[in-house]
Design brief:
mainly beta; Immunoglobulin-like; 2 domains; six-stranded mixed beta sheet; elongated; RGP1 homolog, RAB6A GEF complex partner 1; Rgp1
């Protein structure tokens, strides 16, 4: 029996263009002596689409997706659902390794994550899943695969950035050793942080009038439209200046996943709508006779920033629902002054209307150098 352990030195979350570093330890815990023919490692992105939502062209049948156990060809996506749309060149970790009982050996693997790929995403229509796959084969035995899931974040604009070729990328100490990959990772993380800070720190009040067919309901204010994962979306509502009474409102932080027109499956062919929405946070409030109010919706760190590929696009939005009264000047409060104690009961029924308002948002990624 052979044990293979893969340890990511900086965790499973990476920025596209950053170098992944992994230590692979091979151990023979029990007798007898074991002989391993080889071991290789490779990063790949697996794409899977919902057949009821996405109409994809037929795959190329000339390249089989399943590898027979008797072959020694290393295919990291063997047995996986979907298509392998992106992969790095495979790297050999060792060949002809022999381990005595209780002996173990460690090998280092390093690879730069492709910057042109999509981000990690698990939606209702499509999924983009990154994995580091380590293949190992014992002598006269089938290949065994170890898959390590990864999360890859993509920051728009870094695809066109070139790493400086001069040696003085940043102040360095002659007493500290730092390889070229470490310098590039540090420089890339700092650049990503600077761009995110510049985009998300700008604050200016954006005002939106809220109206229905009978008049003005109020004003919605938001201080910025570009956010980082982990921040709170804070908004204010001014209902005191409206001519239409608002009884209740709700606001949801949502993502909209939309299949591109050329890949949409027709409704008549048994398909479902090509647009799906997921609610990440929601606030609801009864607001009759409320002049001003506010809300705060947290952006989950586990969510995916907006992106666009040839097959699908993902956008973020605020989805408002307002319930307004059809009666002008509606008042549901008891009289302030009463000559004698009485029992006041509000109306049992109030004729209302409901309408929706959408505000689109933009999200960067939160990134800190580890």
């Amino acid at each position: 029996m052979i044990e293979v352990v893969a340890e990511l030195s900086r965790g499973p979350v990476f920025l596209a263009g950053e170098a992944l570093e992994c230590v692979v330890t091979v151990t023979n815990p029990l007798p007898p002596r074991e002989a391993l023919a080889w071991a290789s490692a490779q990063i790949h992105c697996q794409f899977h689409a919902s057949e009821s939502r996405v109409a994809l062209p037929p795959p190329d049948s000339s390249q089989p997706d399943v590898q027979p156990d008797s072959q020694t060809v290393f295919l990291p996506h063997r047995g996986e659902r979907g298509q392998c749309i992106l992969s790095t060149p495979p790297k050999i970790l060792f060949c002809d390794l022999r381990l005595d009982p209780g002996e173990s050996k460690s090998y280092s693997y390093s690879e730069v994550l492709p910057i042109e790929g999509p981000p990690s995403f698990r939606g209702q229509s499509v999924k983009y899943v990154y994995k580091l796959t380590i293949g190992c084969q014992r002598v006269n035995s089938p290949i065994t695969l170890l898959r390590v899931p990864l999360r890859v974040l993509v920051l728009t604009g870094l695809q066109d950035v070139r790493f400086p070729q001069d040696e003085a990328v940043a102040p360095s100490s002659p007493f500290l050793e730092e390889d070229e990959g470490g310098k590039k990772d540090s420089w890339l993380a700092e650049l990503a942080g600077e761009r995110l800070m510049a985009a998300t720190s700008c604050r200016s009040l954006h005002l939106y009038n809220i109206s229905d067919g009978r008049g003005k309901v109020g004003t919605f204010g938001i201080f910025k439209s570009v956010y980082r994962l982990g921040e709170d979306v804070v908004g204010t509502l001014n209902l005191g200046e409206g001519t239409v009474a608002c009884l209740q409102f709700s606001v949801s932080l949502q993502t909209e996943e939309r299949v591109q027109p050329e890949y949409q499956r027709r409704r008549g062919a048994g398909g479902v709508p090509s647009v799906s929405h997921v609610t990440h946070a929601r606030h609801q409030e009864s607001c009759l006779h409320t002049t001003r109010t506010s809300f705060s919706l947290p952006i989950p760190l586990s969510s995916t920033p907006g992106f666009c590929t040839a097959i699908v696009s993902l956008k973020w939005r605020l989805h408002f629902e307002f319930v307004t009264s059809r009666e002008p000047g509606l008042v549901l409060l008891p009289p302030v002054e009463q000559p004698e104690p009485t029992t006041w009961t509000g109306p049992e029924q109030v004729p209302v209307d409901t309408f929706i308002m959408i505000i689109w948002l933009h999200f960067g990624i939160i990134w800190s150098h580890r």
